[in-house]
Amino acid sequence: MDKLNKDQIRNLLPHREPMLLVDEIYNIKKLHSATALIKVRNDSFFVQGHFPGNPVMPGVLIVESFGQAAAALTASGLDKSTYENKLVFLMGVEKARFRNPVIPDCDLILNIEAIRSHGKVWKYKGEAFVDDKKMADAIWSATIVDRK
């Protein structure tokens, strides 16, 4: 599978609107890397309050977008029984840098890579771009746990 649309992503992740941030994933290299699209729009749920008259996508939501894209990449490469009735939880963010503000109306492109896995713990890195300009980058880890 080289591409996932929003419905396919919704089938892989427990997130729902408005917190399902990833709109599309493409250039998928199974369990290794992918590119994700987040459509940051003038009507995105965070725009009204962050900040009125000067909207910016919160850095924490950029990190959340990285995590969702990584979880979908991983789930799409695993046997369904491995992630069925499971959740992926963020364990830590080693480094996150916010280089430029992400201002609506834009397409935020995330390049993510799984850099290590050990059992149910995965480590990833990612870079976020708008029009080829780097907006943010991060290294983070996540784990797959039983849904309770």
How would you describe this structure to a colleague?
With 148 residues, the protein is an alpha+beta fold. It has one domain (3-146): Hotdog Thioesterase (Thiol Ester Dehydrase, Chain A). The chain is built from three helices and seven strands. The protein has helices at 6-12, 59-77, 80-83, and strands at 3-4, 24-29, 33-40, 86-98, 106-118, 121-130, 133-146. Strands 1-2-3-5-6-7-4 form a seven-stranded antiparallel sheet. A hairpin with a 2-residue loop joins β6 (121-130) and β7 (133-146). The termini are far apart.
Overall pLDDT metric: 94
- What proportion of the residues is helical, as a percent range? 10-25%
Q: What percentage of amino acids are in beta strands?
A: 35-45%
Shape: globular
CATH architecture: Roll
Number of helices: 3
According to CATH, what is the topology? Thiol Ester Dehydrase, Chain A
Question: Quick one: CATH class?
Answer: Alpha Beta
The CATH superfamily is identified as Hotdog Thioesterase
Give a short account of the largest sheet: 7 strands, antiparallel
> Radius of gyration, Cα only, in angstroms?
15 Å
* End-to-end distance: 30 Å
Low-pLDDT ranges: none
Number of strands: 7
Strand order of the largest sheet: 1-2-3-5-6-7-4
Structural class: alpha+beta
Order of helices and strands: EHEEHHEEEE
Tally of discrete structural domains: 1
